[in-house]
Design goal:
By secondary structure, this protein is mostly beta strands. The protein has strands at 5-9, 15-19, 33-38, 42-47, 52-56, 72-77, 81-86, 91-95, 113-118, 131-136, 141-145, 163-168, 172-177, 182-186, 217-219, 223-225, 236-240, 246-248, 254-257, 261-269, 281-288, 295-296, 304-305, 309-311, 314-315, 323-327, 333-336, 339-342, 346-354, 363-373, 394-395, 418-421, 424-427.
């Protein structure tokens, strides 16, 4: 709320304002918004797409715009300056910088901002009215701007205690702690820092976490079930910040990824007597057409023999399309279904392919190489030759037939020692017959 004007968000996402009509504050922009903040003479709100809209007088001309791939998630408006929190945990401020209002405190490595607050009461003196404070992800709170009233002196924290929220005013600031305590600092003469001794929130923090965590990359057309951790018992309310890319079911139980792009959604959970409200969680995921990979699950014969067959198999991606097989060397092998037939000697190449779908790219083709040869044959004598053999005797040799079924042909040499007649060998002279 500003000095004389207040604004609020309707359930439709529209903004309504009431109170002082001056400075144009009662004429908010149209559209769907997710956050609104009213300063002394101006107001700002966040659109559904994470961009910023401001109206009224002052502190608007140099309002920031989100960087590529960035969204604003919270805005705070003051007297002559305002600040905005982005989804990457950075804070930007704009407007008057007379008292260092725009000098956002630097962050340690790996730490981000989670909340920002701006004082919005106009003051004539430079010591008041230009304070900003922010909460960090490591539980610390920092303030910047005019510190003439001690507004920048954030109290040190006890061990194992963190700040859970912070609020800045023109003369002081206050913050809640994870142990339930509330502390205020700044101007002390008006008792602004005298927190009642009985005021202790005694509330637990309940950061939201999904188990399993939402993956960084997801496939178009898939759905992820959101299972939050236990907290206050209040439901986790999930809202898509990019409804053209992803949508949340009405029961907040799952998110559906419907188009390529970056999906962002917020998650909030109300507190109760024992729990603080959950800090808003912003989740982002890259949504893309899925890729597929084919892997042969059958081992090819090595070598393969002409006339034989081989059953080929492979696994593919998640498009539910079958993996199909073909021959890239039809002169040596052919494929029918998943049966590979070896038809001639040479190199055989079997290819595996899988078609794409609406949500999946076709799988890159993979191949399997097979060397095709004729089956070897071996001849084995089944008869025992006489040793020694005598001139004038005879011998009928016999041998096994090879796998092709052709008759084994037997010959005798040299003719001066032994001769072949029909299937019998005659020993005609002395010597060593082969």
């Amino acid at each position: 709320m500003g000095a004389l004007t207040a604004c609020g968000l309707l359930s439709s996402g529209a903004i309504t304002c009431w109170g002082d009509y001056r400075n144009g504050l009662l004429s908010p922009p149209t559209g769907v918004f997710t956050d609104v903040a009213v300063g002394y003479t101006h107001a700002c709100a966040l659109r559904e797409d994470g961009t910023l809209a401001c109206w009224g007088a002052g502190s608007m001309s140099n309002a920031p715009t989100p960087a590529a791939g960035q969204r604003f998630v919270q805005v705070a408006s003051g007297n002559l300056h305002s600040c905005v929190l982005a989804d990457d945990g950075t804070v930007q401020c704009w407007g008057d910088n007379t008292n260092g209002e725009l000098n956002v405190a630097a962050l340690p490595a790996g730490v981000r901002y989670t909340q920002v607050s701006v004082s919005n009461e106009a003051r004539a003196d430079a010591a008041s009215g230009t304070v900003s404070c922010a909460l960090r992800s490591d539980g610390a709170a920092v303030c910047w701007g005019s510190g003439g009233r001690g507004q920048l002196g954030v109290p040190a924290l006890p061990a194992d205690v963190v700040y859970t929220s912070v609020s800045a005013s023109n003369m002081n600031a206050c913050a809640s702690r994870s142990d339930g305590a509330v502390l205020c600092w700044g101007l002390w003469t008006t008792a602004l820092n005298n927190v009642p001794p009985t005021l202790n929130l005694l509330k637990k923090t309940q950061p939201i976490a999904f188990t399993p965590a939402v993956p960084n990359s997801v496939v178009v057309g898939t759905t992820f079930e959101l299972v939050p951790n236990v907290g206050s018992g209040n439901p986790v309310v999930v809202q898509s910040l990019t409804p053209d890319v992803c949508q949340v079911t009405e029961d907040n139980h799952s998110v559906s990824f419907s188009a390529e792009g970056t999906c962002s959604f917020s998650a909030d959970r109300a507190g109760n007597d024992s729990y603080e409200p959950s800090p808003q969680l912003i989740v982002t995921a890259t949504v893309a057409i899925g890729t597929q990979t084919i892997t042969f699950t059958s081992s090819a014969p090595n070598p393969g023999y002409v006339g034989d067959t081989y059953i080929v198999s492979a696994t593919g991606g998640d498009s539910f399309n079958e993996v199909t097989f073909s021959s890239l060397t039809t002169a040596t092998c052919t494929v029918a279904g998943n049966t590979v037939s070896f038809v001639a000697e040479g190199n055989c190449t079997v290819a595996a392919d899988q078609a794409g779908a609406v949500n999946y790219h076709p799988a890159p083709q993979v191949t399997q190489a097979i060397t095709i040869t004729r089956r070897p044959q071996a001849i084995k004598f089944t008869s025992n030759a006489p040793n020694p053999a005598y001139v004038g005797d005879g011998y009928v040799p016999s041998a096994t037939v090879g796998a092709n079924g052709n008759v084994v042909t037997i010959a005798a040499a040299p003719a001066a020692v032994c001769t072949m007649s029909g299937n019998a060998i005659a020993f005609v002279a002395t010597a060593s017959a082969p």
